[in-house]
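Section 5.1 Outputs to date
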Amino acid sequence: MTNLQSLIQLASTVLNSLIPLLIALALVAFFWGLVKYVLSGGEDHEQGRNIMIAGLVALFIMVSVWGIIRLAQNTLLGGVDNGNSLRAPSVPQQ
């Protein structure tokens, strides 16, 4: 394995560790905005709505970038598998 491939694999490992944490934080932000929106009691829904939108935008961007990175990784590095990928179910052959 070349130095570039090992560097890309290290960066991929770090990103794959951080992405679920960032997605969880965006999800918490969305639900925090939802709580603020519901509990505002008709006064200022704007702040809760803005937090919910920011959480949704963050989720969309992170998941999209994660997918693009995985696509580039599979295309350029020939499908590097570090055990984190989902596998399609299959029917066992007899």
